[in-house]
Design goal:
70% of the residues lie in helices and 7% in strands. It contains three helices and two strands. Strand 1 (2-4) and strand 2 form a beta hairpin.
Length: 89
């Protein structure tokens, strides 16, 4: 989400957006570097790790609502990668 503050024409990136960009890039890199013949199990495990990191980590300072929004976006990202992966590999 991008927020424009009153009196400013420059958009401010929210913490959720910043974390999404950083984490989705890391997820993509992990998928690209992964070597496996069992992609379905890999993506299941990836979802579990991401879910655990987002729900159990408090260092981000995100509210429960923001963590839920971030998790939803990252799960969608992983699903998109999974659907496209056979064509990208």
């Amino acid at each position: 989400m991008v927020v424009v503050r009153a009196g400013s024409s420059k958009p401010q990136t929210t913490n959720v957006e910043r974390l999404y960009v950083e984490m989705s890039a890391r997820i993509m890199k992990a998928v690209i570097n992964q070597r496996t013949s069992d992609w379905p199990s890999y993506f299941i495990g990836l979802r579990e790790v991401v879910r655990r990191v987002i729900t159990e980590t408090t260092e981000s300072g995100l509210s429960a609502e923001d963590r839920a929004a971030l998790l939803e976006r990252l799960m969608e990202h992983i699903t998109e990668l999974e659907v496209k992966w056979p064509r990208l590999a």
